[in-house]
Design a protein that fits this description.
Blueprint: E1 6-7, E2 23-29, H1 43-50, E3 53-55, E4 58-59, H2 66-75, H3 79-82, E5 89-91, E6 95-97, H4 102-105, H5 116-122, E7 127-130, E8 146-147, H6 156-168, E9 177-182, H7 184-192, H8 197-219, E10 226-231, E11 237-240, E12 244-246, E13 256-258, E14 264-269, H9 274-281, E15 288-292, E16 311-315, E17 320-322, E18 335-338, E19 352-355, E20 363-365, E21 368-369, H10 373-381
Parallel strand pairs: 2-9, 2-10, 3-20, 4-21, 7-8, 7-9, 12-17
Antiparallel strand pairs: 1-8, 3-19, 5-6, 10-19, 11-18, 13-14, 14-16, 15-16
Helix pairs in contact: 1-8, 6-8, 7-8
The protein binds adenosine monophosphate and zinc ion (2 copies).
């Protein structure tokens, strides 16, 4: 099924700059760990990196989950500052947020900060997104100029073709920023683990999609005016059923409400139950670290904001937090994949590759944090950025 094209009402007048302005294509490969780039299946991405830049790895924000990090990439804010602090959240006014909950992902009240498409459109540019967390909500009163309701069944080819149609529009009508999202690598990483042949096949599939976009740009004669940036939201760690922390073995579950479960449990104790929850979980399991809000390590940037829960429990790398009733879902001896862990872990590191007229060529730069990607996009689009947690100076090393 092909998604219905949504054209938002908020089209500003296009500017009339001298010469052809550069366009930016931002590609997200969900769960594409930084080191996948050196696997045989990543041929086209390596070619792109060879004529552009790659980061040793892109450091995600904590928690290293999909919605928090995609929204960080486009706002430059830590999850504690942009409202999307987890994939699953509860709010006394807004109710429950979950990535599969259509009304919630379309409700702008969950989303703070200023997505790059809002920044760009307020300054007269057009933008387009073929799926991006946040793009379905009218944040700041607007969607991207073109956007689609999320639909997993939309093929990679359909997405690629639409990106190339946008790029083929005349300057006076074309989006200057195009964002597109592919989830294949994350899905196979979860189901079969990061080192599986299935994950390699997904790496090959998205590699072809990136290659098709790059070839399409060349075919349009636009290679010298389109910057291509390929990012991931986080990496992937191997997990298995032998490393599970059964939360309800330690905690009376009727004393809490849960947001995310694993590998970071975001816990809202019921009234008066915070002390009990802290006592119950502190030291309960050698591979579970438990924190009260305000007392997490400062480097995690996860202590403020309405949607950071009063208690946060973080599993060590490779461990999962589960409830006893769902333990049977994991086949003994089989490897799966998970992310969400401490964002400093190399296994949580994400892909960053970029090439085009504004990028240096054949350079690998040290790891940098994904809060700076918004500033990079604003610089490439020549728009005045909003105030964020990142800075363009942190990523200038990428630019010519
Ligand atoms: P995670 O649970 O963190 O691994 O999230 C990955 C999943 O998020 C993907 O497989 C998609 O099903 C889902 N997802 C990604 N983007 C969106 C979106 N824009 N709207 C709703 N769900 C999404
Ligand atoms: Zn993800
Ligand atoms: Zn995932």
């Amino acid at each position: 099924m092909v998604a219905v094209l949504m054209l938002s009402g908020a089209i500003a007048a296009a500017p009339t700059p001298a010469g052809s302005p550069h366009q930016v294509v931002l590609i997200s490969l969900d769960g594409y760990r930084w080191d996948y780039l050196d696997r045989p299946a990543a041929r086209r991405l390596r070619e792109l990196a060879a004529r552009g830049v790659r980061a040793e790895r892109l450091v995600p924000s904590f928690p290293s989950k999909t919605f928090p990090n995609h929204y960080t990439l486009v706002t430059g804010l830590h999850p504690e500052h942009h409202g999307i602090a987890a994939n699953v959240m509860r709010d006394s006014v807004l109710g429950r947020f979950a990535t599969g909950n259509d009304p919630a992902v379309r409700d702008a009240r969950w989303f703070s900060g200023e997505p790059i498409w809002v920044t760009a459109q307020r300054q007269g540019l057009r933008t387009a997104a073929y799926f991006w967390p946040g793009s379905e909500a009218p944040v700041g009163g607007m969607h991207p100029t073109w956007y689609y309701p999320f639909d997993l069944t939309t093929t990679r080819a359909t997405r690629v073709q639409r990106v190339l149609e946008w790029l083929a529009l005349p300057d006076s009508a074309a989006p200057r920023l195009i964002a597109v999202y592919f989830s294949d690598v994350d899905t196979e990483g979860h189901n079969h683990g990061p080192d599986s042949p299935e994950t390699d096949a997904a790496i090959a599939a998205v590699d072809s999609a990136v290659g098709a976009i790059v070839d399409g740009i060349a075919h349009l004669g636009s290679a010298d005016r389109v910057d291509v940036i390929v990012v991931a939201d986080h990496g992937m760690a191997a997990v298995n059923s032998a490393r599970t922390i059964v939360l309800d073995d330690y905690l009376a579950m009727d004393s809490v409400e849960m947001g995310d479960w694993s590998p970071v449990a975001t816990i809202i104790p019921k009234a008066g139950r915070t002390e009990y929850v802290m006592r119950a979980l502190t030291g309960a399991h050698p591979h579970l670290q438990v924190y009260r809000k305000g007392e997490l390590p400062a480097r995690l940037h996860y202590n403020s904001g309405a949607h950071v829960t009063p208690v946060v429990a973080i599993a060590d790398e490779g461990w999962s937090i589960v409830r006893r009733a769902t333990l049977g879902q994991y086949v003994a001896g089989r490897t799966y994949g998970a992310h969400g862990y401490d964002n400093a872990l190399p296994s949580m590191g994400a892909l960053f590759v970029a090439a085009g007229p504004d990028f240096r060529r054949g350079v690998t730069v040290p790891p940098f944090a994904n809060i700076h990607v918004y500033s990079l996009l604003a610089e490439l689009l020549r728009v005045q950025p909003a105030h964020t947690d990142g800075s363009v100076d942190s990523v200038r090393v990428l630019l010519r």
